[in-house]
Amino acid sequence: MLVLAGCARPSDRTLADRGTINDDAPVKAVAQIIINAPAVQVWKILADIQDWPSWQTDIIAVSIKQAPAIGVAFEWSTGAGNIHSRLALFEPRRMLAWTGRLFVFHAIHLWILTSLPNGQTLVQTRESMSGWPIGLFYSSSDLLLADRRWLVDLKKRAES
After folding, report:
1. How does DSSP assign the chain, residue by residue?
2. Lesser CB count within 10 Å: N end or C end of the chain?
3. CA atoms of 157 and 46, how far apart (whole Å)
4. How many other C-beta atoms lie within 10 A of the C-beta of residue 98?
5. Domains, the chain, ranges and CATH?
6. CA–centroid distance for 134 within its chain
7. Are 83 and 6 a contacting pair, CB within 8 Å?
8. Phi/psi of residue 121, nearest 5 degrees
């Protein structure tokens, strides 16, 4: 399974800085979930990048040498390999985005948290992937399944 999160090319970095994905990328997914926890609690889990492997089932390891903030680089590993990422947006309790690369593949991963009136949080993830020949190895359906796993895992952690 291939799971990517971001890209380091200037065009992708610019898009991520604006809180958007690459709509022209050959692989894209949008998914959302309602979590029965306040945004501050969901944010705390999502923004603790070093702790991702403890709750996100697809992540093997993470290395981040600084506190998360815009521009901070980090690496993380999945079954597909090591992903080199950089935070593009870091707006507490609201939005998180990163860019990165795995081999010749590039992606942008955006998370949006919306507080709901009943103490719940709507979490939306948007992701795009590009780089020839990504379409031969990974599809938008594959990406949607992976992003849904992220959301379900996040929900389990936040509601536990």
Report:
1. --------SHHHHHHHHTT---TTSSEEEEEEEEESS-HHHHHHHHH-GGGGGGT-TT--EEEE-S-S-TT-EEEEEETTEEEEEEEEEEETTTEEEEEEEETTEEEEEEEEEEE-TTS-EEEEEEEEEESTTHHHH--HHHHHHHHHHHHHHHHHHHH-
2. C
3. 10
4. 26
5. 10-139 (3.30.530.20)
6. 18
7. yes
8. -130, 130
Q: Which two tokens stand for residue 38?
A: 């306040």
Amino acid occupying residue 152: V
Q: What is the pLDDT of residues 128-145, one digit of tens each?
A: 999 989 989 899 999 999
Task: Report how far residue 20's alpha carbon sits from residue 16's, in angstroms, rounded to the nearest whole number.
Answer: 5
Each residue of 119-128: pLDDT tens digit?
999 999 999 9
Q: How many CB atoms lie within 10 A of CB 106?
A: 24
Question: For 34-59, how does the pLDDT look when each residue is reduced to its tens digit (9 = 90+)?
Answer: 999 999 999 999 999 999 999 999 99
Q: What is the pTM of this model?
A: 0.90
Cβ–Cβ < 8 Å for 127, 85? no
**Distance in angstroms (rounded) separating the CA atoms of residues 138 and 80:** 11
Asked if 60 and 79 count as a contact pair (C-beta separation under 8 A), the reply is yes
